[in-house]
Amino acid sequence: MRAPLSWLRELVAIPADQSGRDVAERLVRAGLEVETVETIGGGVIGDLVVGKVLEVEELTEFKKPIRWCQVDVGPAHGGVHGIICGARNFVAGDIVVVALPGTTLPGGFTITARETYGHVSDGMICSERELALSDAHEGIMVLSEGTPGDDAKALLGVGDEVLDISVTPDRGYALSMRGIARELAIAYGVDFNDPIDRDIALPAPSPTHPPVECGSEDLEACALFTMRTVVGIDPNATSPRWMQQRLSACGMRPVSLAVDITNYVMLELGQPLHAFDRAKIRGAIRPAHVPAGTVFETLDHVKRTLVDDDLVIRDDSGPIGLAGVMGGLTSEVEDGTTDIALEAAWFSADYVARASRRHKLSSEASRRYERGVDRVLAPYASARAIELLLDLAGGTYCGMTAVEGPFEPTVIMMNADEPARIAGMPIERDVVMTLLTSVGCEVSGIDVLTVTAPTWRPDLTDPADLVEEVVRLVGYDALPSTLPIAALGHGLTPTQRMKRRVGTALAARGAVEVLTYPFVGEAELDALRLPAEDVRRLTAKLANPISDEQPYLRGTLVPGLLAAAQRNLGRGTTHLRVFEIGSVFHGALGDPVGRVSVDDRPTSAQWDAINALLPQQPTHVAVVLIGDHSPAGWWGPAVPQTWAAAIEHARLIADCLGVTIRVEQGDDPMLHPGRAARILVGDVQVGIAGELHPRSVEALGLPGRTCIMELDLSAVMAAAPAVRPAPAVSAHPVAKEDIALVVDANVPVSTVQAAVAAGAGELLESVRLFDVYSGAQVPDGKRSLAFALRFRAADRTLSATDIAAAREGAIAEAASRCGATLR
Predict the structure, then answer these.
(1) Which end of the chain is more exposed for a tag (fewer CB within 10 A), N or C?
(2) What's the pLDDT at 136?
(3) Which domains are present in the chain?
């Protein structure tokens, strides 16, 4: 909500020495978030004056149309100035805004008298864009009023400060000047001039022109519906400059007089209004529901298919508006409209919110109705709008029709000491009553207060709401702070410690942790080539997703990490290594369960049913590698990040958790067929690693040889020992042996390495592959694998016989299992 300070000053006596930033500070202390304080036309330095165009000469000898204008800016500013202008939306006799020589416009552009197109241009005729007042208008400003020589800054509101306030869902009243001014009156301790208290003198209804009849087919969804009718207005009447200026300052584009008046009153009072063309109405207007499947076209020229729950405004011809959201095209007010039917109503926030989200249609009206509108405000707001319409466009007032359901104000019982008890500081009963009265509540009682909430505060329903009001007005900065004391013997859980250990190990290896949204769409899953039956694709779909393009919960961390990589690559990064630790979701939602009472803890059966409702949510860890591991330099060529590096990240995680993993060739659809590995703990697959499939690389616009690794961290942690024994340190020397074994090219290295380790026996300390060779000295279809064996005993120095026996055992086991021969 954008609120001009000059408008606020009309409603509340803000001290003259208070700037926009001072006012913003008071509002922030009251609990309203002020995002920015802007100054209208803040870049204008110097004189802006009103001028009258006396004469316009067309200069046709140039490539583009140029006009030589004689503009009277008043005797105090030199009388008539000759000004060159290219705009063509004005004629002689028009009132314009002139920047005189020496004036600096927004952007640092200083006006000077200079020769151009054969004439000396002594000033500049300005547009709203050039004065940073608006981006909505082309051409120069043509004013409806003003005397040559007048100060145009005051006329245009230049220098006025505008507060941009972020309004939370529970404070819908702050989406109006009336609501913000009331908060300022409390903050400054001054009187509040409620705009609905002013006298509105409407003429008596015309006896010859009956008003539009109205009704309501659903008093629960629309408990108050009013229609006021005016006929015979001047269709050529335009909005006055002051109204257009305020609408623009509030971020709304002036459209036409009738529409501008409804927007102006909505900004002033917080009550949305809608104007219908009376000539297009057929019969009585009423809120109603229509059959599902009814097609209705809104003002934005979109045809919408309605459902049973949609509340519409209809006449005898069918829907003419989506209640509380947007009007219909068939009853739109047009340039030639002379008869107006003005709707002002109270709609249930639930109905409006559902319709707005269902049709993906957010409007200024729906924003207010969703947060709650003053229950009794509608007739006052419509009277204010009709007063403005009759004053500015003439016409005949035909009267008002209305329908209203029963209304009971909200009454809340609260102990007088409740705010003090919850805030943990002394707050006297008189202070509580004074503060609640200042926000519009009616308060009575001594020890137990009876509080009647004001109609403009639908968020006040419980004692806790009243406590919040009292505390925020006392000042959150006045609340005492007490640090909680942690219970002894409690710290991180084993799972938390293991997650932290994994994150630390990956960060130490040079990876950067990122956090991505847990939502995915069909497009990302298709790009990763995941089949329809893949468990990573069978996830729950959100009923109200942030983006329609990503309506599913993620079944893998890879799409989010690749999106993060894309953003970094798009900003110039060429080499990156990122990882994420987070939950994934497997399986759809279970059967719905009834609402569980909050009076007592759920039973075991209820708790099991609630857990069965949720999908499986294991914790995963994933890494994406792109580019080089280390750059080229005097030390040598660059070292790229390959599929082998992705596997090594899986080994790193397993090592830091004390888990033994096996790596075998894999066939995951996301990965390159020849550079894919599956990672196992025992015989259970817990992850994948390798190079992303070339088609996925192309579809996602990623560099070639992009590598990924993903582990089911929950499964790996479940296999981790509760206590990791300290490694044994032997005082005896290590014995080193290297062997080269020739095996079939299709035998996995991991199989050969496992056989070597098994055959070497308990003396083997480590085995590491250090060379793979296939060439002239190795038969076709074979390859040579060279392993470095390290032997050590805890109690003695190994003899040559011990070493030879272990070596021969390793060779023999490899021969038995893999058909290996010693090279």
Answers:
(1) C
(2) 57
(3) 2-40+161-193 (3.30.56.10), 48-156 (2.40.50.140), 222-404 (3.50.40.10), 412-477 (3.30.56.10), 494-593+604-719 (3.30.930.10), 735-822 (3.30.70.380)
